[in-house]
Fold this protein.
Amino acid sequence: MNAERDAAIRTIANKQPIAFARGELRVPELFGANVFGPQQMRARLPETAFKALQLCLTQGQELGPGLADQVANAMKEWAIERGATHFTHWFQPMTGSTAEKHDSFASLEDGRLMMEFSGKALIKGEPDASSFPSGGLRATFEARGYTAWDPTSPAFLRETTNGSTLCIPTAFCSWTGEALDEKTPLLRSLEAINREALRMLRLLGDQKATHVYPTLGCEQEYFLIDRDFYLRRPDLIATGRTLFGTKPPKGQELEDHYFGSIQPRVLAYMQECENELWKLGVPVKTRHNEVAPQQYEIAPIFERTTVAADHNMICMEVLKQVAQKHGFHCLLHEKPFAGINGSGKHNNWSLSTDTGENLLEPGHTPHENMRFVVMLTAVIRAVDAHADLLRCTIAHAGNDHRLGANEAPPAIISIYLGEQLSEVVDNIVAGTTARSEKRKDTMRLGVTALPPLPRDATDRNRTSPFAFTGNKFEFRAVGSTQASAKPNAVLNTIVADALAGLVDQIEKLKAQKGLDAAINEVVIETLRKHKRVLFNGNGYSAEWHAEAAARGLPNFKNAVDAIGNFCAEKNVAMFERFGVLTAKEAESRMNIQFEAYCKAISIEGLSCLSIARTMLLPAAQAHQGAVAQSIAAAKALGIDVSGQHKCLATVSALIEQLIARIDDLGAQFEHAEGHPGTPQEHARVYRDKVATSMQKVRETADALETMVNDAFWPLPKYREMLFVQ
Ligand code: ADP
Ligand code: MG
């Protein structure tokens, strides 16, 4: 075996589970210990200030400068008591990750250093925005942007080896007021869905609820591989996925990893992650082995969307940081390894009222049922009318390896309701058919109770991108690396749009027909029009692809085809109508998505080139040289070498092919780099030329991996990364 790989394996063999300083606190006290939440605020603010702040938080009132100073001071004292020296506005620029610029609390007064934090510094920051993607929104002369405190997501303290930092969740905008981040549209979408859902509730006779908000629980999948392997894989370091590697003799076919017993080193890692996350107020609950070898999942208890979206960002950060200490590397990429399952982020979504009701919970009374069916109808209408847009929100280079490949949800957006609920929908739709025998079991909304719907985990269809699971929808096509803000901003907006449409229609009909009849008619009409998006069968099958086409459902097979729809006229009009994005903001987001695609493929292309040229080709040539020498020596002794000759000829032919394919990749790469045109045209070139050429290099290199002397092969192999522990 190659000496480097051998050394890595020997190191790994001696690694033990790592203990961490657990402290005295039990989980209930530990939970949120590093969060400046309502309890801390109540304890540290005068009663009047606390009440005023609560009003700001619940009613969206503006925070006056006096109150801001009080809050900032309380926050600072709390943080300093816990060892903080710095604070940072923590935000989500359109890079897909979070950003932070630390400032200390220090200020000088008469030559003495004081620890200070003003209301102004809490509310507003001014990081230089010129190096964040803006998609053309921001000319360099107005490069400045500002961050603004989002008081709906609590500040938290991040502890590191040498001190703590106070992190303040913020939104990030340009001076001209355009959103430069993922958070702002999400916050705007919450207002839209609150407004439209409340209109619907009022129409249905609910006078109590004063606020409706979406809830979110993100199931996060990830891979762990040993850091000693990771550091020997330049492709993983640069791109997060393996650009080379043959399938190991054993993959996931034995299905022995899923829910298997968790290996002690991995469990120790998970426990430390959970401990860290609990301190940060992230309510993580579930951990288990996933389908692929070395693949795992962590899932929290759901929360309000803004908090849950921030918490998922924190979760991804913690997973990565803690991994290093435990000698692992955490891979969040959608497809780190070819030939085995990739990773997703199941986006569990529902709507809640401030009176504690889940609007997607099938009820017990006819009235509750009516509300449920109306909400269900709104989601069905939303997803069908905006499948193209929903598809955009999950379109990126990494997710292309999952969606439509034979293991993840297909790229066709459809909704799974399960048998019972589908029957309910069919019955509602049949309500207007004249056939009397059908009428007997026809449901009348507001009059008939729904049959009890079983919430049975075994009934789940893993192949659906968007599934109803008892009292929530699960958007399963979201990629594991993704920030949840974008898909949720869009999900909220399209449901707000559908609710608005339904309310308008019902109100129009109400005067002449009465409320119940109006609701019935609009629901039936809407379901009839949009039920083509419902599909309970196998989403992977070829029949579904044909049927979806016949039903007229869009099928955007890859990111580049999908992204352009973001700015379809109907989508931009909707974003503007609900104040979620302006046309300019929408366009900039689309451009950024195309650019991100190009950059991802470009980095992969360069990484592939350099590994193939400088590591794999030399390894193959060394092997070729050794075999040639050995053949020459044997031949000199008069030994029959015809078999060996054949082997050498095969390897040599592959080496020639590798060189040709490397040259082609280099040429395609240069062509793509210099290609003029729109961001979309640019992205097409990367997809059609660079990505395909890269795949060809991989095929040849992988063939060589199966032949070249193991002692010469420099890259840790799949069988090692996935199975050596
Ligand atoms: P699984 O889908 O793996 O069987 P669960 O049904 O327990 O697991 O739920 C998965 C995720 O869905 C969890 O994060 C959970 O908190 C979240 N979830 C449950 N109810 C809701 C809800 N009403 N709104 C949003 N997320 C929810
Ligand atoms: Mg699930």
About this structure: The longest strand covers residues 212-226. The chain has a mean pLDDT of 91. The chain has three domains: 31-181, 190-243+270-335+343-581, 595-721.
